[in-house]
Design a protein that fits this description.
Number of strands: 6
Oligomer: single chain
Radius of gyration: 20 Å
Number of domains: 1
Structural class: mainly alpha
Strand content: 5-15%
Number of helices: 8
Low-confidence stretches: 1-62
Order of helices and strands: HHEEEHHHEHEEHH
Strand order of the largest sheet: 1-2
Largest sheet: 2 strands, antiparallel
Distance between the termini: 33 Å
Amino acid sequence: MRLFAILFWTLFVASAYAQQEAPGPAQPLAPGLPASLPQAQSPTAPQPANLPDAPTAPAAKSSGAIVGQQQPKRILGLVPNYRAVSAGAIPPPPTSREAFGIATENSFDYSSFVFVGVTSLMAEGSDSHPQLGKGPAGFWGYTWRGFIDKTDGNYLVIWALPTILHEDERYFAKGQGGIWKRAIYAGSRVLITPNYQGHNTFNTSEILGRGIAQGISLAYYPTADQNLGDLSEKYGYAIGRDALTNAFREFWPDIAKHVLHRHS
């Protein structure tokens, strides 16, 4: 429920200000439609007939990103945002080394330890796994397991499987369009991702990677919690968390501009 509350708060804030932005000239299409990119990059080319609702935006910077929709490397100076690509920008696929670097930054960033510490404290307080105990010993038991959960999932989803399957696991922000259209787009990226050729494909790295991470967790969680129901719940939580994180990334530039009055 906390995850859904965060999502609806984000959507509410973004929708409250989305109508203040006037539409501008057409801008490059989102990744996954490489056949249309030459037209989108040409300032005089018409919008494709089969995409009448393609997002519009103000004139783009030389990098291709939509003005006012740049994705920062950190959100509020704390939350790492290394996987995000600014709306309108279409960089080349990451190399295996670059993907490994992104996975490492996400896993060992100082904010990761803060996040794991907070979630472990909540889990210990609610006695999520009674076999791990209470107090400092129980908190430590939750903490190191939570860190492994997060880290092996990151390396599987961001680096190992994408390198093998040639999938680009960065989040390509949409930046323009209706509030629900952008929200659905953001959430659906856990199921759809561009491959190295720029074509949309099923996000095997996300779906399979989170599943493998849950399988690995069987080695270090109490046997009493190794049942299908508990594993399914943790798996669903991991996928849902990634979908909500994408939604937060999508609307962060709008929140920063209209709520916090920060400008790129």
